[in-house]
Amino acid sequence: MLASRSPQREAILRQLRLPFRVAPSRHHETTVPGDPLATVVANAVGKARDVAGRESAGLAPAAGSLAPAGLAPAGLALEPGHLVLGVDTVVVLDEGVLGKPADAAEAAAFLSALAGRRHDVVSGLCLLDSGGDAWTAHARTAVTFRALSRAAVAGYVATGEWRERAGAYAIQGVGSALVTAVDGDYWNVVGLPVALTLDGLAHFGVAPFSWLAAPPKFAAP
Amino acid sequence: MLASRSPQREAILRQLRLPFRVAPSRHHETTVPGDPLATVVANAVGKARDVAGRESAGLAPAAGSLAPAGLAPAGLALEPGHLVLGVDTVVVLDEGVLGKPADAAEAAAFLSALAGRRHDVVSGLCLLDSGGDAWTAHARTAVTFRALSRAAVAGYVATGEWRERAGAYAIQGVGSALVTAVDGDYWNVVGLPVALTLDGLAHFGVAPFSWLAAPPKFAAP
Questions:
Q1: How far, CA to CA in Å, does A30 sit from each of A135, B16, B82?
Q2: Which residues are A120's β-sheet partners?
Q3: Mutate which of B161, B186, B211, B212 to disrupt the A interface (most A C-beta within 10 Å)?
Q4: Lowest CB count within 10 Å: A116, A190, A204, A214, which one?
Q5: What is the pTM of this model?
Q6: How many CB pairs (< 8 A) connect A and B?
């Protein structure tokens, strides 16, 4: 179960062909001042726990589960073998965190600050299973922006692609033209660190691509 | 004009919102033994020249042009301001080049060779304008694969995603689960180095995002 309403994260799980359903959390994001790593891990745990707690209490019975083992009967929450995935991502420049810009002027300011420089995208991940086992980790990817003229910043801002994007850009969109290099997990910059997600699944005994095998047939009564 | 029939390259140009049309070249790919860089640049030049030559000779009048300046009247070949883009990409491991696997067994062999290691994806780029000006360059991106069990290799091969892919994987597909990190231009691994393409466009006076401006209205007669 993906404890997130991010369409980018959904798209990445679909790309991996992992069976999952979305259950947005009601977790209120917190900030650990001066510590982006602790912040994203705390929020990932908060999101996953919120969804797992509501699932267990029967408050969200329609929500589904991430069932990477390929053993996902529909309609039941937190089955054995099902996992809840919480993720939080921030953009870090000079120890400061760039969130989602409030308006076009702030988007232009963010992009001007990022231009010609390297910044970090940091994600926290939390996987919870039905037995209460929790796995947390973080990923850091360095992103280098090209130098940008005022006209280039204005041209990108005019696309509106910065809306709802931490750091004011989407690397998987027209914003790919802003970037000269990434160092680390590219998918982390889109919204979900794939390599770390695979590591977490391995912690729960789910091997790479094992979820692609045909799901077991349930015998008719 | 994109001198390629690669759907991945088309998708990247669409993502950048660059106006373009596809004109696959009839260039026969060559290999410079022991020199992948020279090979990809030679093939990029060969593809671009082949298409530009046929355009000029009127042999492919329906093919279009890459018109990044946003000044693309349809149906005319190699207009001033139009460019031809040729690209060639190879996967390099231990100085050897991995091409497209012939069958599932070769795909499994390629993936086993890449597992747990770093390899390079190298692309050559050539941009030609209507005045005969040529710009060439290359991009190199390092890709690190996770360690893979026999079962994981078999699981990925079973997806068939390796078909028509140099190195037997698609980083933008389920194959993203094979990779732990990239160092350089991610899009180069998909098939077109975006940052280098932007550099080439800048060589011809086309600034980043300038092509997003509304194209000029053609006055009615």
A1: 19, 35, 51
A2: A92, A142
A3: B186
A4: A214
A5: 0.87
A6: 115
